[in-house]
Amino acid sequence: MSAYAIYLAGIIIVSFLLILVVMVQNPKGGGLSSTFGGGANQIGGVKKTGDFLEKSTWVLSAIMVALILLANSTISGTSTDAKVLQGSEQIEGNLAPDNPATPTTPTNDTDTAE
After folding, report:
1. pTM higher than 0.85 for the full model?
2. Quick one: angle between helices 3-24 and 49-74, nearest 10?
3. Do 33 and 76 touch, CB atoms closer than 8 A?
4. How many domains does the chain have?
């Protein structure tokens, strides 16, 4: 299993959790904590549910961004740099002759016997 596949699985899991956390929150600020009374005299720590959901949203978002950046750095085979490098190798190959001409030795006609 490649690193990209691991990061992709992590992105899917984190995105599912992020959807759940956002859906539980109330857009008007009440959210899950208002379901259990919503007053100032909360019992059992339900008063802090809104803070927990907000912090978990930020943490999951940061994890998602980190996983996306890591997955992007491990993608191979689709890079345009590789295509550019292959193109430059082909150009260099076309410039260099496959069969270089054999060097000729100059003949000197003045070396005739006198």
Report:
1. no
2. 160
3. no
4. 1
| DSSP helix/strand/coil, 86 | helix
What digits encode the pLDDT tens for the residues 83-113?
A: 666 666 666 666 655 555 666 666 666 655 5
From 58, 35, 59, select the one nearest 47 (Cα to Cα): 35
Q: How open is the CA angle 92-93-94, to the nearest 5 degrees? A: 90
73 is a domain residue: yes
Q: Are 49 and 40 in contact (CB under 8 A)?
A: no
Structural domain that includes position 10: 3-38+46-78
Confirm whether 68 is domain-assigned.
Answer: yes
The tokens describing 56, both together, are 């978990």
Of 11, 28, 30, nearest to 70 (Cα)?
11
Output the CA angle 69-72-75, nearest 5 degrees: 155
How far apart are alpha carbons 22 and 61 in whole angstroms?
11
Q: Note the Cα 78 to chain centre separation in Å.
A: 12
Residue 29 domain flag: yes
